[in-house]
Each structure stands twice: as structure tokens, then as C-alpha cells.
Specification:
CATH class of the largest domain: Mainly Beta
Radius of gyration: 22 Å
Oligomer: single chain
Strand order of the largest sheet: 1-2-7-6
Number of strands: 7
Shape: elongated
Distance between the termini: 43 Å
Number of helices: 1
Number of domains: 2
Length: 140
């Protein structure tokens, strides 16, 4: 028995790019840091919240790259001249990626109490009906 994938299913034409995007996202190295929530705030809006305690807004970068929302964080190591008896809070960098569907737009981003909120909205697609003319063979 042959396993059908999204890009090879006979009723789903032109989805090969989506399958590649899902594979790339699975390999993107999201290691669980920082923790995050995704919530649906209305029928057409979402909010991604990342726990970024210790990061300032200047330590964070938010971009949209090839239908992916990419959030990067990089802290500067300010431990020079300090003596730690225990260091459990590491200054580490991260990159977290989220695949965006067609019609999903990134709104504003807000820092609040160590949480980064990124709002997303999904545009309602217009319903389009297209009639295709059938021509007779041999006529152009």
C-alpha cells in the first residue's frame, strides 16, 4: 500500500509547497524555549504569547520570512566582573518560528510583564466563482 502525502493526494492539487513548508518548520530547531501560548481571540484573530523574562524589547526581533513568523531573542552577557555562587538564569538566544497561512497578517507586538504578545488576524477570503468555457476539439 502506498502512503499518500499531502502533496501527492489526488484531490489536493498544488499543495506541494505547503508540504515542503511543514517539513521545513518541523526541522527549524524549535527546542521548547521560550515557552509559548497560542490562543484564538475571535473568529478571525489569534495571539501568540512568549515568556521572555529577562529580555528587553531591544533584545528581540520579529520578522515575517517566506510565510513564517520568526521571533528571535539575543541577550548580551553582562556577567563580566560578577561572581555567581549559582547561575540558573542563563543569557541565551532563541529563534521560534510559526507558519502563517495565506491571508494571516501580523499585527502589533506588545511586551508586558515579561511576556511578548504578537497579534495575528486572518482576512476573510472573497468567494469566487469562475465559469470555464468548454471548446470543441479542433476549434480555438
Amino acid at each position: 500500500m502506498t502512503k499518500l502525502t499531502l502533496g501527492t493526494h489526488p484531490f489536493l492539487l498544488g499543495f506541494e509547497q505547503l508540504e515542503r513548508l511543514v517539513e521545513r518548520t518541523a526541522k527549524s530547531g524549535n527546542d521548547g524555549y521560550p515557552p509559548y501560548n497560542i490562543e484564538q481571540t475571535s473568529d478571525r484573530s489569534y495571539r501568540i504569547t512568549l515568556a521572555v523574562a529577562g529580555f528587553s524589547d531591544s533584545d528581540l526581533a520579529i520578522t515575517v520570512e517566506d510565510k513564517q513568523l520568526v521571533i528571535r531573542g539575543r541577550q548580551t552577557d553582562d556577567s563580566e566582573g560578577r561572581v555567581f555562587l549559582h547561575r540558573g538564569i542563563a543569557a541565551r538566544q532563541f529563534q521560534r518560528s510559526f507558519v502563517l497561512a495565506d491571508g494571516v497578517d501580523v499585527g502589533e507586538a506588545v511586551m508586558e510583564n515579561g511576556l511578548l504578545h504578537v497579534d495575528l488576524t486572518r482576512q476573510v477570503a472573497d468567494s469566487v466563482v469562475q465559469s470555464i468555457r468548454i471548446r470543441k476539439s479542433g476549434n480555438k
